[in-house]
Amino acid sequence: MQPVISISQLTKTYASGLQALKQVDLDIRRGEIFALLGPNGAGKTTLIGIVCGIVRATSGSVHVDGHDIVRDYRAARALIGLVPQELHTDMFETVWGTVRFSRGLFGRPPDAARLEEVLRALSLWDKRNDRIMALSGGMKRRVLIAKALAHDPQVLFLDEPTAGVDVELRRDMWALVRRLRERGVTVILTTHYIEEAEEMADRIGVINKGELIVVEEKSVLMRKLGRKQLTLHLLEPMQAIPPSLAAWPLTLNAQGSELEYSFDAHEEHAGVPALLRELDRLGIAFKDLQTRQSSLEDIFVSLVSGRR
C-alpha cells in the first residue's frame, strides 16, 4: 500500500546555520497512529512545519497521498489538519464562526451537522456562541483541534496537543484520536508525555539533533531495546557482592538489602535461573523479588543519551 506521507532526503538549514533536519527519510502508513519523540530542539516541529507547507525545506521532497507538497500545495494541504503548539486564533470570533471559517478555507461545502459533530466530540457545543477570548486555555486548545478537523482531513498532525492541558481534555483527546483512526484518519503526534505514546501509537519514531535515529513498531522497539530489571529483596543485607557472582552485572542498593540485576529480555532464560541457583549455593536468601520491563521512556532516554 502506498504510504499516505512519503518523506525523502529532507533537510532544513536555517539562515543562522542551524541544521534542523538532516537527510530524513520517513513513510507514514495510512490509518496509523505515529508518535514522533525527541527532546526540545530535535527537529519535530520543523518536520511538521515542512509537511504542512509552513516551513520551506532546504532540500528533499514530501508527498501527501501522492501530491507533492510544493508543486501541488493546495491539494496536499487540503488533506492535512494541524493542531499547533501555540494557542493562536481570532480571539474576537465565536467558536462556531472560526470552525465554520476553517472548513470553508479548504473549499469544503457548508455542513452544519458535521461541525456540530466535531464540537460535541470536543465538549464545545455549549460554547459554540462564545467568543474565543472568553474561553479558558483548555477550551481554546479544544477549538484548535476543532478547527483542524473541520474540513475532514485524511491526515491529522498533533504537535504537543496535551502540553499543559487538563486531564479531562487529555482523556477526550485520546478518545477522539481512537475514533479518527477507526475512520481511517492517519494521526501523527509529538508529545512529551511518553506514556501517551506508549499507550496510543502503532509506531514510534525518535528524532534527535535533526536525525531520525529509529523508526519501529512500538512492540518491536520495546522488544529489541527494552531491558528487564530483577530486584531481589535480601533477607540479610550484604556488604559486598561475592566474587562468584561477577558473571552477572549486579548492583547493591538500599544499604545492601537489595540486589539488582539488569538484563536483555531475550537473555532472561539464560541468566536468571543460573543466578538464582548460584545465590542458593552461596546461601544468600531473599524474602521477595520483582521484575520490571523497560518503559518506552527508558528506551527513549537511552537512545537520545547515546547520541549526545
In words, what does this structure look like?
The protein has 308 residues and is α/β, with parallel strands linked by helices. It has two domains: 5-222, Rossmann fold, CATH 3.40.50; 227-295, Alpha-Beta Plaits, CATH 3.30.70. Helix content is 34%, strand content 28%. It is built from ten helices and 14 strands. It has helices at residues 44-51, 73-78, 95-105, 112-121, 137-149, 167-182, 194-200, 218-225, 268-282, 296-305, and strands spanning 5-13, 19-28, 33-37, 59-64, 67-68, 80-83, 155-159, 186-190, 203-208, 211-217, 227-234, 250-253, 258-264, 286-293. The strands form three sheets. Strands 6-7-8-3-9-10 form a six-stranded mixed beta sheet, sandwiched between helices. The protein has a four-stranded antiparallel beta sheet with strand order 2-1-4-5. Helix 3 (95-105) packs parallel to helix 5. 31% of the residues are buried.
